[in-house]
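Sample entry (497 residues):
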Amino acid sequence: MRLLASGGGVLTGIIIYLIWQGVNLWPVLFIAGLAGMLIYFGNGRVGSKSFAAFQNPKNQETVAFDDIGGQDVAKNELVEALNFIANAEAIRELGIRPLKGLLLNGPPGTGKTLLAKAAAQFTNSAFVAASGSEFVEMYVGVGAKRVREIFKQARSLAKKQGKVSAVVFIDEIEVLGGKRGSNSGHLEYDQTLNELLVQMDGIADGDNIKMLVIGATNRADMLDPALLRPGRFDRQVRVDLPDKGGRLHILKLHTRNKPLAPEVSLEEIAAATFGFSGAHLESLVNEAAIMALREGKNKVKAEHLTCAIDKVIMGEKLDRLPGKEEKHRIAVHEAGHAIISEIFQPGSVASVNVSPRGKALGYVRQTPLDDMYLYTCDFLKARIAVALAGAIAEELILGNRSTGAASDFEQAADLARKIVHGGMSGIGIVSPADLPQESLHSAIVTIFKELENKVQAILSNHRPVLVHTVDILLEKESIDGEEFRSFINSDKSAISA
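Predicted structure, serialized as tokens:
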């Protein structure tokens, strides 16, 4: 210490003498500071970040498989894999190699993180979690060190908690495990992935602490093949959007602590939320409770949930108010959509609205009668007819069209393209990759012309209903599906159609 102090004093004296002599030391000090930074980062100081925030058992949320709805297939497959940890002795007697890694693959908001937490709870394992982006830095070697650190901390946490197994959960693993060579000029990504592969290869059945790595991604196509081979991520568990029964289960879970009015039917809400993820459904229920609080109600009513569906899909109501003429055009446009939708698929209209939400000045919310995964030509043509109906209704009532139908036409073109690529158009079975653009355009125009004439004839026959719907929308701004169907069915022409 005395030697260091003496050396520091001599260095200070030299610096003072040089400054007194008029020597410019700023370049020297800058280079010295830069060298110090390089030494600091080179020693891996940046990589010394701890994952303690993710491993503290007091802050860790306890989740069981029973608390997760709509993912029965994923849960069953996950439980089967986890039994290799829970029943290690029986597995060893049969000579089965335990699984080292599980990959949860599915859209955002479907419960992949919850499934990983439930896996740790199911196997009574220590749980350490991190995001793939936390491992990658611009400094070479930092990511690899963090990979080693999270495995080390998982084993230490398991010993500290008196457990024999640990689960390492890596969310957004495509950031860490992307295909090697895709980041040209930046080998840090490849070095970090290589370290993850080494650590997973080092997991052995005879270890005192049994390790299981669970990765989550919605871009499995970006992952390096070496990461997906057997012996690393042995199984890929698909975590899909929930079906109607799964959505009902999720809604029941999220409404357990919320007072619902007697008239609320969660079955109807589940039917009206096709394509919603678990995160969407949680947000829906939460927004409905907020609306009830805002109105001073002590129970969540059906209209709160219905309005919350619109908010989750379209966004909050906007302050901008269109002028009288523009609002009339919007009402005509949306009434056209609603009439064609109800005629082609009775019972499909949930509500018709002319109050601006998100980017839409008006909208028709439709309720699918059943979850659909395969589409026939007739179904796709019906959807195209609904998309075209808004502009055709404007032309029928107002004499011209507007730019409000631009997004409708884009949707109609996508649907028509599916008809052509599916071999259901007049040109027959095609190879989408080899189909000339001229032929595709001609087929789409033919479909549009056929349906445009059909929609124009239907709306002309139902003009009284169209006008009446517009009047109600201008007065109330919103019509629910039952009310809309009541005065559609009262029209004789609508019944005869």
